[in-house]
């Protein structure tokens, strides 16, 4: 009872402290908040390079913490930085180590004996927490892949509309990429802008994006656009190719949905089979008993 009262008092004291801090904290002016948002939007990732993410990125490079090419690709697809990824690792590791440590400190403050179990739990929790970010990153790979595929088909439609508005092939691709702020569109826009500054053909940049993001449809699209820019007059071919890519994507989505439905049907039949057995077993036992 005494230990529970002490813990309750600690929690109440923490809540009271937070309430007092919230009452006396200076409110943020609307103008300052909007200015901060504007600076963050215009600066992009460079604005946060000096913060926690920048420190985590420098720590990763100094300690040479492992980062595979697949993880770099997934981070690129999600629009995340290496620093953000290792900040998440640090948070999960700290949670795995901190929770058993807090429990052990609480038991020690209450006068209870603390064995080696909290230390072992902290080591195991810290090790598991370090890899939670990796599991979460891989878990979102398929979702990011579907989002990239949907986004690239939207990009195709926008390019076709720009071409119908008499824009050049390169200008149509640049205008379509500048419409959205999604990571894929930003990557395409950066590649096209680099090609424009270097005065080179932009289609190799699109092929590089297709390889980085694992969207081969973009490489096929770049081939058609390059032929059209060379004067082949393939506007109708371009539209037909876009329709083919979209139909192939829809067919793949239908096949995936059909597989998911079949998998769900299998699990739905199990309760029906159990109910049928529950109805048949009593009469069978009665017949066997007679």
Task: Report what the structure shows.
It comes from Tessaracoccus lapidicaptus. The chain crosses the membrane at residues 266-288. This is Type II secretion system protein GspF domain-containing protein. Keywords: Membrane, Transmembrane, Transmembrane helix. With 290 residues, the protein is mainly alpha-helical. Among the domains are: 154-233, no CATH class; 234-281. It contains twelve helices and no strands. It has helices at residues 2-24, 30-43, 52-63, 69-77, 82-109, 117-139, 141-164, 169-177, 183-198, 203-213, 216-232, 235-289. Helix 10 runs antiparallel to helix 11 (216-232) and helix 11 (216-232) packs antiparallel against helix 12 (235-289). The longest helix is centred in the C-terminal third of the chain and has 55 residues, at 235-289. The radius of gyration is 29 Å and the shape is flat.
- Average predicted local confidence, pLDDT: 75
Instruction: Sum up the overall morphology in one term.
Output: flat
Helix/strand/pairing category: mainly alpha
The percent range for strand residues is: under 5%
SSE order, one letter for each helix or strand: HHHHHHHHHHHH
In which range does the helix fraction lie? Answer: over 70%
Give the N-to-C terminal Cα separation: 62 Å
Number of strands: 0
Tally of alpha and pi helices: 12
Low-confidence stretches: 28-50
| Major sheet | none
Using only C-alpha atoms, the radius of gyration works out to 29 Å
Protein name: Type II secretion system protein GspF domain-containing protein
Organism: Tessaracoccus lapidicaptus
Keywords: Membrane, Transmembrane, Transmembrane helix
């Amino acid at each position: 009872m005494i230990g529970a009262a002490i813990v309750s008092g600690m929690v109440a004291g923490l809540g009271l402290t937070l309430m007092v801090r919230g009452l006396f904290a200076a409110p943020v002016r609307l103008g300052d908040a909007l200015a901060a948002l504007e600076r963050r939007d215009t600066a992009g990732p460079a604005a946060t390079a000096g913060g926690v993410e920048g420190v985590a990125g420098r720590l990763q490079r100094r300690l040479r913490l492992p980062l595979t090419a697949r993880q770099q690709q997934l981070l690129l697809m999600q629009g995340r930085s290496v620093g953000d990824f290792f900040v998440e690792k640090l948070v999960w590791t700290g949670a795995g180590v901190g929770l058993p440590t807090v429990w052990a400190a609480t038991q020690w403050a209450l006068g209870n004996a603390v064995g080696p179990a909290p230390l072992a739990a902290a080591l195991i929790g810290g090790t598991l927490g370090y890899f939670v970010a990796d599991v979460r990153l891989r878990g979102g790979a398929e979702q990011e892949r579907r989002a990239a595929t949907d986004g690239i088909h939207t990009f195709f439609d926008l390019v076709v509309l720009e071409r119908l508005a008499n824009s050049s092939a390169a200008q149509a691709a640049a205008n379509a990429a500048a419409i959205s702020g999604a990571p894929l569109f930003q990557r395409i826009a950066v590649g096209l802008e680099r090609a424009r500054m270097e005065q080179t053909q932009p289609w190799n940049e699109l092929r590089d994006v297709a390889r980085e993001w694992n969207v081969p449809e973009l490489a096929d699209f770049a081939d058609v656009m390059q032929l059209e820019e060379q004067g082949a007059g393939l506007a109708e071919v371009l539209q037909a190719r876009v329709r083919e890519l979209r139909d192939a994507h829809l067919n793949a989505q239908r096949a995936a949905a059909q597989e998911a439905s079949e998998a769900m049907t299998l699990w739905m039949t199990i309760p029906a089979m159990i109910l049928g057995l529950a109805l048949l077993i009593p009469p069978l036992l009665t017949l066997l008993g007679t």
